[in-house]
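Risk register update: the risk that structure generation would not scale has been downgraded. Supporting records follow, first protein first.
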Amino acid sequence: MTDTQKPLFETHTLATLSRAQRIFVGRGDEYGDTWRDCAFLKMEAVARALRCEIKPEHFRALAVAAFADMKYWRFLGGFKDDHLIDGINYDAFLAEEMRQLLGESK
């Protein structure tokens, strides 16, 4: 490996993270700030019907965890790059959401 050549793991990972960023920025432009503004009305209604008490600030973490699980399970239908890229984005969002909810420092 030459001094200017980066390791393959770094090169591939950076390329994928760049694609992931383009996708979540594009979706934010397209859909707006749904993760900040969404009230999770159906999830709240289901929780009430099941007599589950869930703090409002925890609904977002539960929702993104469900989205991440769904992306993972879509591999049962075969490989699709979108499953991986969206999975990275949902997992990244969940990691930060949980860090903040648990009061962990950066």
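Supporting record for the second protein:
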Amino acid sequence: MKKVMIITLIAISVILLNSCGQTTGTQTTRLDELKLEYDQIGLQHNMKLDEMLSVYGDHPEKRTMQTCRRLADDHFTGTGSIAGDVVDRIYGTRQFAKATASADVIDMLADSIEIFAKYPDVFDSITVVLDCGLDIQDKIRRLESIYLLVDEHVENEDDKHSILNGLSTTIHSLEYWGENYDEWQQTLTGTIGKRTLGIGAIIGITDGVGAVIGTLEGIRDTHKGQEGRVGIIAGRALGEAAKTSVYAFIAIVL
């Protein structure tokens, strides 16, 4: 049954991708609008990762998981503990060692975090793309098509905003770690070793989880009309996503 569901979701992703290039100008414009609005979250997330890499480069003392986490905690001030909670759960079940782990991670989190159980079709579509054997650019194109799926089928605006922040973060995370994994590994360990199988997908999904939860927490802890609310929510999303990303990388290489 699970194989049938996965094949169906892959087909949906392919159809969505093809529709982006072959349907009306209105649909194409809507995708462009969504990318313009949400791409900044993913891009700023990557900038925060570059900041953290510089911090690690400035602290060449012997690195352990504890010291690296402490530096991340000090750098990403004002964020909650979700990064540690999520990564510890994934690390404890050895999901980082699996080639196709993204769907298992979402299934695991859905047991305790409502939003992941509430929209199974959306998150299943994301994980199917992440866990398939496509190259990074093909994965990115298919993930971008899911912007339209979320925009059309998620009615709650807070949930929609949270999921799209997470999706943007996942999209940009894939490219970032594809380009910067070796530099991070060398900075933290002094060596460049063989990459863990599925590294891009597993960090991509954890980044997205951090952004989703950070957005929801920012919405919860502010009120409509509050001065600077948009910036506060974005800051929580970025802080949680970047911190979760760093925690995940540390768990893999140290």
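Confidence is low (pLDDT under 50) at residues 18-24. On this basis the risk owner (M.S.) recommends closing the item.
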